Amino acid sequence: MQTFFRSYTILLVIFLTSFINSQVPGPMAGKNGMVVSASELASQVGIDILKKGGNAVDASVAVGFALAVTYPAAGNIGGGGFMVLRLNDGTTTSIDYREKAPSSTHPDVYLNESGNPLPEKSAAGVTSAGVPGSVAGLIYALEKYGSMSLEEVIQPSIDLALNGFKLEYRLAGSFKSTLESFKKYESSFKIFSKNGEPFEAGDHFIQEDLGRTLGIIMQKGKDGFYKGEIAELIVKQMTELDGWITLDDLANYEPVEREPVFGAYRGYEIMSMGPPSAGGILLVQVLNILENLTFERKDWGSSSYIHNLTEALKYAYADRSKHIGDPDFHKVPKDKLISKDYAFEIFNRISDKAVPSELITPVDISSLNESEETTHYSVIDKFGNAVSTTTTINSGFGSKIVVDGAGFLLNNEMDDFSIQPGIPNQFGLTGGEANKVEPNKRMVSSMTPTIILKDGKPFLVVGSPGGSTIMTVVLQVVLNVLDFDMNIQRANDVFRIHHQWLPDRIDYEPFGLSEDVKNNLIDRGHNIGTERTLGRMDAIFVDQQNGVYYGATDKRGYGAAIGY
Ligand code: GLY
To answer: Could you confirm whether 390 is annotated as catalytic?
Structure first.
C-alpha cells in the first residue's frame, strides 16, 4: 500500500511539473525565418515576404512600411530610425535614417526672448518635427541589401491602408486616449476619429491618404516622398502652422551608412547602433563593466545584482550626457568609452554602497527627456541574414500632426536635442554642447537595435522602444540570456529595473522589487523610484545547434512573433 502511494505521489509530481512547465510561455519557433514586431499584421507582412523568397532586409523594409499603417503610434514614414544588419556573407553595417534639424534652426531656437526654454515648441506641434528619414532609409536598405523590388515590399502596406483592417482593442484604445490631442489638428482628427467619435475595438480602419502616399512612393521611390506632391504637402502644413521644414530640407535628406559599434562580452560579439544613437556605446560600456563580475543563477533579482547593474548604468549615462552627439558635428570619444580598460577603472569605483549620482559627475547633465514611444522589430531569414531595426516618431503619435492630404504623422523628434545647453529644462535636466540644436544635425537617440553573434553567427537579435530606458531594457534581456540562460520569452517577460544616473533613483516594474530587496537597496544608499512598465522588446534567439529560430514578442505590448 505504501509503495502504491509512493508511486502515485511520484506520478502526480511528474504530471504537475509537466503541467506547470507547459504553462510557462515559450517563444515562437521556426526553422526558416522569424519576424517579431509590435503589430501582428506587420509581422505577417514580413513573414509573407520571407516565404516568397525575400531576404531579411526585404522583410524588414516591408515591416517598416507596414508598421506605418498598422501601428501609427510609433511605426512611421514621418519619423526616423536605425537598422543594424549582419548578412550571411559576413557583412556588418548599420543604416542611420535619424531625423535632422531643419536648416533654419539654431541652438537658441527653443528659447524665448528672455532666454527661457520653450519645451512646448520642442516637444509638440509642428516646430517639434525634424526632417523625416524613414522613407529614405528603408529605400536605401532595400536597394543596397535587399533582393526584391520596392513594389513587392510596399504593396502589402498599400493594401492594408486602402482596404483597412480591424482595430485591435489596445490599438483602438490608444487612438481614443490621444483623441483630445488629435482634436487640435483637423487633419489628424479626421483620420483618428470615426466622424468625430472615438474608434472602438473591432472597427474597420481605412487610411486612404496614407495608401495614396505609399502608392506615390512605390512609383517614384525616394523622390516620391522628398520631392513633388508629398514634399509640397509637408511644406504646406509647415507654412500653415509656422513650422520650419522646407522643400530644400526634404530634397537634401540622405541616410548615412555607418559602422556599427562592436564589443565583446564573455566570448560573444556585440554589434549595435553607434552615434547619433547613444544606445550601442552604452550597451557595450555597461557590459564591459559587468564582465568583471560573475553572476550565478541565484543572483538574479537580488539586491546585489541590481546594485551592480545600477552603479554601472550611472557611470555610462553620465558619460552619455557629455560625450554623445551627432558624429557629423561632434567628435564622440567612442574608443575610450567602449574600452575594457576604461570599464575596469569604473568597475574599481563600484563598492557595496551606492555612489550618489551627483558625485559621479557634478556638471554637464544631458537631456534624457525622450518619450517612451518608439518601436523595434527583429527579422532573420533562412539564409542567416539578421536585421535589427528600431524606428520612432518620438512621442506616441509623434507631434500628433497628420500631414493633410498625405495621411501620415509627423515626428516630434526635435525634443531629443538638448534645447538649452547647461540650463535645466522642463524636466529639471540640463543638456550638453554635444547635443545642442544645430541646422541639419541629428539629435541624440537612445535606440539600441542590436545583434549578438556567437562563433561568428547571429545568436540574438534584440531591441526595444522606451526612450532613455531602451538601453537598460536591451541590456537586461541580453544578460538574462547570456548570463542566466533564460529562454528568450522568459528573458523578455521577467521584470526590469531602470537607472539613468539622473534622476538618481531606481525605477522598477510592478511586482518587480520585493520589500526585502527594496530595503537592502536603500541600506546600500539607493533611492527607490517609480513603479512603471519598462520597454517592449521584440527579440529573436537562434538555437545554432539545432538550426531553430525562437521569436519572443513582449507581453507588455500586443505584437507578434511569427515564424515558419
Ligand atoms: N525618440 C527616442 C529615441 O530616439 O531615443
So the answer is: no
Averaged pLDDT of the chain: 91
Output the residue whose Cα is nearest ligand 1's atom 4: 445
Q: Are 166 and 200 in contact (CB under 8 A)?
A: no
The answer to whether residues 327 and 194 belong to one domain is no
- Asked whether residue 19 is assigned to any structural domain, the reply reads no
Ligand 1 atom with minimal separation from the 98 CA: 4
49 and 158 fall within a common domain: yes
Within 10 Å of residue 180's Cβ, how many Cβ atoms?
Answer: 10
pLDDT above 70 for 25: no
Q: What is the mean pLDDT of residues 133-157?
A: 98
Q: Residue 148 contacts by C-beta under 8 Å, 6 or more apart in sequence?
A: 49, 52, 54, 58, 142
Question: What is the DSSP secondary-structure string of 172-185?
Answer: HHHHHHTHHHHHT-
Query: Ligand 1 pocket by C-beta < 6 Å: which residues?
Result: 370, 374, 392, 394, 413, 416, 445-447, 467
pLDDT band at 271 (very low <50, low <70, confident <90, very high): very high
Q: Do 457 and 481 belong together in one domain?
A: yes
Claim to verify: residue 342 and residue 303 sit in the same structural domain = yes
Instruction: Look at the chain and report how many structural domains it folds into.
Output: 2
CA of 376 to the centre of ligand 1 (A): 11
383 and 335 in one domain? no
Residue 19 pLDDT exceeds 90: no
What pTM was computed for the model? 0.92
